[in-house]
Design goal:
single chain; 541 residues; mainly alpha; 25 helices; 2 strands; 73% helix
Length: 541
């Protein structure tokens, strides 16, 4: 499997089409296999940085893996992404390497391992460019064509875009240079590179020329040469490239020294001078950092002021919009409704409902208009309940107590009616008013059932059944209570009696559904098993 992945990575870059990157992959594979070539991981790291950002990321993704199979996986995946980028560049410009690739570093590593990639060969089939190349040297024409295309692209960019590109290059090269010397491994050389970068980019912390020369000399001859040659380059971009290239060569020496001696500095380095110069700039660094923090705080405060201003403006706009909205719409928060058009019939009926009962035809009209909710239904029944209750109290109409009880139950407001029923029991009704007494006992039992006072509910249901043995209503009460308490056989028995006395199948199905959905989770599970076992087939089970 590992050999297959290695082979696939190599096949992505045929030698004739991608000689440089094929040589890079071959050296990478040789390093992973630890074969007789003895390719070192640090050399692959340097070669990766020299080839560009994508190859450096490829190296990092492989280096962070622990075992060989994971490393070959990462190599193949990285090579696939690299192939897309290189293939596009070859198709567009006819070259493999990026414009900012460090050719000197690439050649240095290749030479170390006797690798000599062949230049890309022109395709055999003829194109417009091939026709022009027939009279001149192919390599020169390709070079000129590439320069022309790059020049055309540069001319198309505005001055602002050029500045953005330069900023991107500075950032990229700065990151690349610092990445060579992680601070935790190479603290002195990281500071050296930082000082060089500050020289080039005119950083406020930049070290003086004299001190920079002293520091370079204190580190060693290679470091002094790197600094001294910096001024041979004119542009920032050229100077940054010089730092990266010199840093790559310097890292080879420093890394070897660190491995051999455990020290990044040579025995000839003047540590006293190095520390003295670094200390001179520490206070300056702290002052600059303090200034940055002050600027950040000022910026934070400005942002906070702006945020508050925006929030205040938003709140004001919302308040103005709300004032304008209320000119045209009414809200009924107790009914869960907003934005009801003013002076509409809907508004008129809802205002009436909030104050007193509405007629059944008015309620149906609201339903047809889509003005439907549990809160509206409860309010509708509650207003009816209050009306029936007042009629009972003021006119001594016992049937109104029955009607009030039914409405209060639908409104789920039980405290008031429960007290009235408690005070009225045992209902001193004339013997010839059996239907009324049964209705009062049954509705009283229903209120007790709603309050989960099942013992009194059963007592009142049995008493009502004794008064009107041919009525199905006490039977349905008892059936519902027994099913709710888990006495399923008794529950079904009472529902059978109710059906024998005229209780319809549809009403029975609705009753069973109501009992099921009002039950606790544990009772629901038991009732479901019982209903299925007794042949009840409901979609909602």
């Amino acid at each position: 499997m590992i050999n297959k992945q290695i082979s696939q990575a190599q096949q992505l870059f045929p030698k004739l089409q991608y000689p440089t990157h094929r040589a890079y992959i071959d050296l990478f594979v040789s390093m992973l296999n630890q074969d007789e070539m003895g390719v070192l991981e640090r050399d692959i790291e340097i070669l990766s940085i020299g080839l560009g950002y994508t190859t450096h990321k490829l190296f990092q993704s492989v280096a962070e893996k622990g075992i060989l199979s994971e490393r070959t996986d990462a190599l193949l995946f990285g090579a696939l992404k690299l192939k897309i980028e290189v293939k596009k560049r070859v198709a567009e410009f006819g070259v493999e390497l990026l414009n900012d690739s460090n050719h000197a570093v690439v050649d240095l590593v290749f030479t170390q391992y006797n690798v000599k990639p062949e230049p890309i060969k022109a395709p055999k089939h003829k194109t417009i460019i091939n026709t022009k190349l027939e009279t001149v040297e192919k390599t020169k024409v390709i070079a000129e064509e590439i320069k022309k295309r790059l020049l055309d692209k540069a001319l198309q960019s505005s001055k602002q875009q050029s500045e953005i590109n330069l900023t991107d290059i500075v950032k990229a090269k700065t990151i690349q240079a610092r990445a060579l010397f992680p601070e935790d491994i190479y603290p002195n050389y990281r500071k050296f590179i930082d000082f060089l970068l500050q020289q080039v980019t005119s950083d406020p912390l930049r070290i003086s020329f004299v001190d920079m020369e002293k520091l370079s000399s204190a580190l060693g001859s290679e470091e002094l040469a790197l600094f001294a040659n910096l001024n041979n380059h004119k542009t920032i971009e050229e100077k940054l490239k010089h730092i990266v290239f010199g840093g790559l060569q310097l890292k080879i020496s420093v890394k070897k020294r660190l491995k051999d001696t455990g020290n990044e500095l040579t025995t000839n380095s003047d540590l006293f001078v190095i520390k003295e110069i670094e200390a001179q700039y520490q206070s300056k660094l702290e002052a600059i950092e303090a200034q940055k923090q002050r600027e950040l705080e000022i910026k934070r405060q400005a942002i906070e002021v702006e945020r508050r201003a925006v929030a205040a403006a938003k709140l004001k706009a919302e308040q103005e919009a709300e004032v304008e909205r209320k000119k045209h719409f009414s809200d009924f928060p107790k009914l869960g409704l907003k934005n009801i058009p003013k002076h509409s019939r809907t508004e008129e009926l809802l205002q009436k409902l909030m104050a007193r009962p509405i007629r059944i035809d008015e309620k149906k009209w609201l339903d047809c208009e889509g003005i439907v909710s549990d809160l509206i239904d409860k309010k509708y029944h509650l207003q009816l309940a209050h009306q029936h209750f007042q009629n009972w109290k003021q006119k001594s109409l016992p049937w109104e107590l029955v009607n009030a009880s039914a409405a209060y139950r639908k409104a789920e407001e039980l405290a008031k009616i429960k007290k009235a029923l408690d005070d009225s029991y045992p209902f001193n009704i004339p013997k010839n008013e059996k239907k009324l007494k049964s209705a009062l006992l049954t509705t009283y039992g229903g209120v007790c059932r709603d309050l989960k006072d099942y013992m009194n509910s059963i007592k009142l249901g049995l008493e009502a059944h004794k008064v009107t043995p041919l009525s199905f209503r006490p039977c349905t009460l008892l059936g519902a209570v027994y099913l709710s308490t888990g006495e399923f056989d008794l529950g079904h028995e009472w529902y059978d009696k109710a059906k024998e006395r005229g209780f319809s199948q549809d009403a029975y199905d609705n009753d069973i559904k109501s009992v099921y959905f009002r039950a606790s989770d544990e009772m629901k599970n038991r009732l479901k098993q019982n209903l299925i076992a007794t042949g009840h087939k409901y979609k909602w089970l």
